[in-house]
Amino acid sequence: MNTVDLITLYRSKDITETWKSAQSLEVINHPQHGLISPNKYRAMFHGKPCPYCGQKMKHGNEFKTNLKKKAIELGYQYIDKQGEKYINNVAGSCFFHPNYVTLDHKLNKARFPEKLFDYDNLQIMCWRCNHEKGDNNAFDIQHTYQYLDALAEETLERYQVL
Hints:
Blueprint: H1 3-7, H2 12-21, E1 28-30, E2 34-36, H3 38-43, E3 64-65, H4 68-73, E4 78-79, E5 85-86, E6 88-90, E7 94-96, E8 101-105, E9 122-126, H5 127-133, H6 139-158
């Protein structure tokens, strides 16, 4: 799909369909690997830590299921920041491990559909962190602040001020 066609996408349903249909197409121009599919890009991060929570990310069919009951048995359900039980899923038909590798769009897909497959607009994170981020464009800054605040507190505990 060309950029002109992408700019005309405004309905989230159309954007979602375009994104889903391109999961196995070589549409991302990666600086080291050339044209690759979103699935191949995500697969490159299996076993690597999520840049936000540090948990090892998962990728592959063994980390997803079509049955909600099975997902709960496998421990895919967790408590989100709002204190609610949550299971990562796609339209209620496929349930994923909380640390399944996802591609997040730095600039929202609905606001910038022409950047849907731009390498510079994509970032890797686990599904749980992606869910927490949502459309919060300040997520990176807030996460960095929380990390630095926790680091400062730990340092002050270890090294008391004289």
